[in-house]
Amino acid sequence: MLHRSHYAVLLLAATVALLQAVFFDLPCSSSTSASNRSQGSKKQPAINLGFAQRHGKGRRAWLCTNGSSAEHLLHAAAQRRQRYLTYQPPGNGWNNQRQAMELALVLAVLLNRTLIVHPMSPHERSVKLKRLSKLSGFQAYNAIQREELMPVSHLLDLQHMASVSGVEVMEWCDTQKSLREALAGLRWQSICHSGGHGYWVDRLPSKNELNEIDILQRQSFEPSGGWETKCQAEILHQQKHIWAEALVRRVSDLVDLDCDVMYFTEGTLFGVDLRFVDRDAALGAQTLLLDAVRLEESIRDKAKRVAARLSPYNAVHVRRGDHSLRAESADLWLNEMANAEFLQQTRNLYVATDEARKAWFQPFITAGYKLIFASDIEDILKARLLPPASRQDVTGVYEQAVLMVARDFAPSPHSTFSKFVTRSRNEMEAVDGMLTDGTRIKWAGHTVLV
Questions:
Q1: Which residues contact 236 (CB under 8 A, 6 or more apart)?
Q2: Of all residues in the chain, what percent are helix, strand and coil, respectively (each to 5)?
Q3: DSSP letters of 126-175?
Q4: Are 287 and 49 in contact (CB under 8 A)?
Q5: pLDDT tens for residues 102-160?
Q6: Are 278 and 211 in contact (CB under 8 A)?
Q7: 349-366: per-residue pLDDT in tens?
Q8: Distance (Å, rounded) from C-alpha 436 to C-alpha 433?
Q9: How many CB atoms neighbour CB 309 within 10 A?
Q10: DSSP structure string for 200-241
Q11: Do 185 and 258 touch, CB atoms closer than 8 A?
């Protein structure tokens, strides 16, 4: 007779295995049969959970400078020396594109694959394309020309990322179409899983992990039919199986896919959770990610120069372009800064904002603040040599660096721009030593129904 816990794990395994069978479009072979994958009690393919062992193993990043990245990528691909993991960036702002890249980095660690990263697309161009041409986010990204794209190595320290994560990183500075064409001779595996339909788990627990089984059975999730990334196969599945509250897929099922290029499509790595069954594995993944992702050195140097000129100074991010904050008055930020006693520290206040009307900030001046904007330190934050379409986005990254080294910081609610600053300042709220916001890497114990 089966123990109740055995029924639970078999039910959980059968549910996830069904979803895997529906949503994998497999041009590549897998050494694990479908029948074996459906049995949770049998041994699963092993993902690499040794985050601490990989940390600081010193892999290399191949950058776009002088074409070295493309040359190395094409040579390695021709020799079939490496297995790759890459992704379609979302056509949203830079910080959403960064989040997708961060999830790809953790997946590359788990699956022991070389990570191919993609350039930043200008946000305003994407917004305009979506509005005028009725394109979805990732389609807008793909409609942007190469000369308007910004190599991600101009924004993030990819050498540091490779060294800390133990994952080899290859930078691609051209379009998605050009990558497909360059690697057309390799076997591609496309994977589409929308954050509007479900989430990823790293693995299924064994039959003896009773607490982990209970945690996975009590996961919270709110489906979103309006989610920009659709994944047609998932939509069809939901129409046939109304009972499915969340479509759950597991990373461990990707281990044995014998593909040269594992490609996450339709911008699906933005907005989807990766929930770890084991607390220590989740902590290890978050720790590695927070250590590996940092701004490029010249950007951090700009922030040091600003700090030397303005110190002491506090900082605030005022986002007004977002519809959820458009109606907010200055009191939202003034009250937070008053509670943190900004004025008791210094009157100097650096303001990063998308609000063009300086008159809107009069309440800040009345309250006693001396305001500094990017235009006041343009000699340090200048981005004149960059492609015109990217200047606003890159200046925003420069400003993030300035906010990161301020004495104190007041964020904008729900902003990925602010969350990256808060996370980099080590000021994000933590539970059990782990972040519950500011990253899509989570412990399943923090995402249970209350």
A1: none
A2: 45, 15, 40
A3: HHHHHHHH---HHHHHHHS-GGG-B-GGGTB-HHHHHHHH---EEE--S-
A4: no
A5: 999 999 999 999 999 999 999 999 888 888 888 888 999 999 999 999 999 999 999 99
A6: no
A7: 999 999 989 999 999 999
A8: 10
A9: 13
A10: EES-PPPTT-HHHHHHHHTB-----TT-S---HHHHHHHHH-
A11: no
The amino acid occupying position 377 is I
Alpha-carbon distance of 25 to 38, in angstroms, equals 17
The long-range contacts involving 421-427, CB below 8 angstroms and separated by at least 24 positions, are 421/317, 423/290, 424/294, 424/295, 424/400
Query: Could you tell me which residues come within 8 angstroms of residue 356 by beta carbon, excluding any fewer than 6 positions away?
Result: none
Does residue 219 contact residue 275 with C-beta atoms inside 8 Å?
Answer: yes
Given a contact cutoff of 8 angstroms between Cβ atoms, the answer to whether 20 and 253 are in contact is yes
Could you tell me the two tokens for 380? Answer: 């340090």
Q: Which residues contact 291 (CB under 8 A, 6 or more apart)?
A: 55, 164
Tokens of 387: 């492609």
The reply to whether the predicted model has a pTM over 0.85 is yes
* Exposed/middle/buried for residue 7 (C-beta within 10 Å: 0-12, 13-18, 19+): exposed
362 φ/ψ angles, rounded to the nearest 5 degrees: -55, -40
Is residue 183 within 8 A of residue 86, CB to CB? The reply is no
CA angle (63 as vertex; 165, 441 as ends), nearest 5: 30
Residue 178, both tokens: 């050009």
